[in-house]
Amino acid sequence: MTAETSQTLDRGLRVLKLLADTDHGLTVTELSNKLGVNRTVVYRLLATLEQHALVRRDLGGRARVGLGVLRLGRQVHPLVREAALPALRALAEDIGATAHLTLVDGSEALAVAVVEPTWTDYHVAYRAGFRHPLERGAAGKAILSARQQTSEEPGCILTHGELEAGASGAAAPLLGVTGVEGSVGVVMLADAVPERVGPRVVDAAREVAEALR
After folding, report:
1. Count of CB atoms within 10 A of residue 154's CB?
2. Domain IclR-ED: where (predicted)?
3. Which residue segment(s) compose the domain that 51 sits in?
4. Together in a domain, 95 and 172
């Protein structure tokens, strides 16, 4: 902590981060131990965060992330989309296929930015706002591959016909971007993804990740 920072705000943000990292919530005592402060301080922090709907407490007293965090998160999408568009445009034009940025939204994959190529006679219509399970489609599977935390960096995931008959997909996860879990990919009308597409998609994912850091 420095003279220019707020200790109370810092603790409140740490509470949110701790709650975001657990699926089962945390008790006041658990938060107190993790933060290294007394229970009275934790009660005050939780009460303030609850007033802003950033935290909720269940009947058992366990604190969890509140719906207010989701509302804040929705405002992040336009910023992420703007940062990703240059790399997506270059990818779409280079490959001649529809390029997209997909982020995690709960248990689903949500397309937040889509760029279609300008020079092709036909391409897959893939719209921002399209949702699908993480377990289906290249975009979702690429995100799941990054969660496995293996020693090797995840590469490009290829799929065919999982979301749309006759369409193939290729996607690579965004890596090293704090607070953002997503992937960059392309979707095309083809029986198989051409060999050169995989490395190009991985490069585009790196470009987007750098833009978001």
Report:
1. 21
2. 68-213
3. 7-65
4. yes
